[in-house]
Design a protein that fits this description.
There is one protein chain. The chain is α+β, with helices and mostly antiparallel strands and 163 residues long. It has a single domain, classed as Chemotaxis protein chec (3-Layer(aba) Sandwich). Helix content is 29%, strand content 26%. The strands form two sheets. Strands 1-7-8-4-3-5 form a six-stranded antiparallel β-sheet. The chain has a two-stranded antiparallel ribbon with strand order 2-6. The longest helix has 14 residues, at 72-85. It is globular and about 45 Å long. It starts with 23 loop residues before the first strand and ends in a 14-residue tail after the last helix. Mean pLDDT is 88; it is low at 1-18.
Length: 163
């Protein structure tokens, strides 16, 4: 994209959200209880500085079958960047991710409720993976995670420069 090209629009595929906390990384096996509550892993609660009563934005991913969890400041930065882009992708992100977002409050046991529509979108029930993705968390059904990110998906790629 050229700075002098007025028709160029910034991409929203990989938004550069201002860092509000340390990078979230790692994967935890967690259980979604019969009431749709999920304990946020202690490691992530510490990084996000979450205490009882903290609010989190919970929504669906724009193009993956998972639920995303953001601190409100990071979520608002994501939507602001999408709006500033003026692109069709930005508008879609605002409509889908912003439109399905709910504010959830962390309870004294470190849990949030995952709304039924979001659980349905991600196929969540019982066992889940909670993964840290830099400035947000993703909640996955393990079978869907393996279908999208299992070893077979990457066998033909060369990661030797990074691993």
């Amino acid at each position: 994209m050229s700075a002098t090209d007025p028709s160029a629009t910034p991409s929203v595929a990989s938004p550069q959200i201002p860092k509000s906390h340390e990078r979230l990384s790692g994967q935890h096996e967690c259980t979604l209880d019969e009431k749709g509550r999920l304990s946020i892993p202690a490691e992530f609660r510490t990084i996000l500085e979450l205490l009882e009563g903290a609010e989190l934005k919970v929504s669906r991913h724009i193009n993956l079958p998972c639920v995303v969890v953001y601190r409100p400041d990071a979520f608002n930065a994501l939507l602001d960047q999408a709006e500033r882009s003026g692109s069709k992708e930005g508008k879609a992100l605002i409509r889908v991710v912003g439109g399905t977002a709910r504010t959830m409050v962390l309870d004294k046991a470190g849990r949030i409720s995952v709304p039924g529509l979001l659980r349905d979108h991600a196929g969540l029930s019982g066992s889940t993976f909670v993964t840290g993705q830099d400035q947000h968390l993703e909640i996955w059904d393990p079978e869907r995670w393996h279908a999208h990110y299992g070893i077979a998906k990457f066998e033909a790629m060369d990661f030797s420069d990074w691993m």
